[in-house]
Amino acid sequence: MRKWAVISIVLISAAAIIAVIIAEHRSALPGRRPANPFAYDVEEFRSVDQELIRWRETHQVQLDREDPRAMAYSDGKIYLAAGNELQVIGSDWSRILRRTLPSEATCLAAAREGWIVAGMGNHLVILDSDGETIAESEALPEESSITSVAILGDNIYAADATGRRVLIYNRELEQTGEFRGDSGVSDVHGFIVPGAHFSLAVNSEDELWITNPGIHSLQNYTASGRLRSYIQRTSFGIDGFSGCCNPVHFTFLPDGRFVTSEKGIIRIKVIIGTGEVESVVAPPELFREGTNAPAVAVGDNGNVLALDFDRNMIRIFEPI
Amino acid sequence: MERKKTKSRREFISSSARFGLVLALGGIGGLAFRRSTGDQWVWQIDPFKCSWCGRCATNCVLNPSAVKCVHAYELCGYCDLCGGYLIPGHSDRSTAAENQLCPTAAIERKFIEEPYYEYKIKEDLCIGCAKCAEGCSAFGNGSLHLQIMHHLCVNCNECAIARACPSDAIKRVKGSDPYLMKGDYTK
Q: Is the ipTM reported for this complex over the cut 0.85?
């Protein structure tokens, strides 16, 4: 009798222990975990009204390098910097040219005549259409970080993110000036560049536009660096820019509309001169969270080219 | 035939005591050596794996949790519109309670100069819920992130939050280098 009592107690205890282990295991399964009482749903900011998406991805060009840094477009050719290599890709997506650069390029601009300006951290070089160096600037202080270059007439503009300034060079890459975006107007601040994201571009009307990422602004400057006008939209939503450094990249459609690329919630959108969003080229769902904002360029036919640093490819978007 | 030498009970107890003493002294010495060389292992969160699930606040054996938000100042954009501080749909970019994302008002916002704001964590108020870290990562640089604070953590053998973590972000690290701060970590 006593023996049976001991066996029963042991069996009941074993069953209880097994039940507790199974219950604990099941409760830890993803679908059975209790809801997060502190849940913060940012998905509403990632979702985009389908009516706004008026572009579709039509082509992808896989790169043969894993370290693309910059892209430019001119006269039917895509110029790509990856590591210390320059590649030129033709309209049939084949590589027309490969050249080893003196050092790693961080940004590119291509002139209509075929020559190229490359920013290389703390200095610039001009390359001819064969990729040969024809001019080189003096080096800026080592901590300088040239993140964007643009060509306007005989001037070359370089955005130095660390120095929070735009440098002006001539075609021989001699520095002829610089400006910091101070307008003298109390409600317009100079360049605020919290991170290594400071971009500039020239539109088809030969207007120089520069981001002021700290205040989510796109600003238009004269050739000598005087502020002419600006648009500023700060918002968590798609109607503006948020975070420290947006828009990270921008360029222009042939009719002057802006194409902007954002980090954080990665998306590419088209905005008009008043700052309103006209359409979305690429919603966040097309990019992996936590990756870099794609560099953008616009082809002759008005297609948007996005350099996806995560997938090492150029993605082409056409209007629907 | 030689008979095997047998130990008396007294000899056996005496030799066992000596052996036990030597073993204990060796163990204490080894432990002291291990501590002195800093090879103690402690739990820490890999901020790049963290998915801000909220379990650090609810599953730690301590209440409030030993997990706190920390700020990598060198990554911060010092934004006025801070995704880690302000609630979506805020009425104003101010320090008013209704505009704050943190459920315990553990983030202090301080004006530096136009347009910069500094954000500091009040550790005694932080419960490690990761709302700010999620907001900062979604909209900004991810400078706000979670770490297990070792002046609070009791270093359980089986960490309750490591067991509950859905992204396997909590791991053992050397006690001599117990934090995985984003700024330092990425250098």
A: no
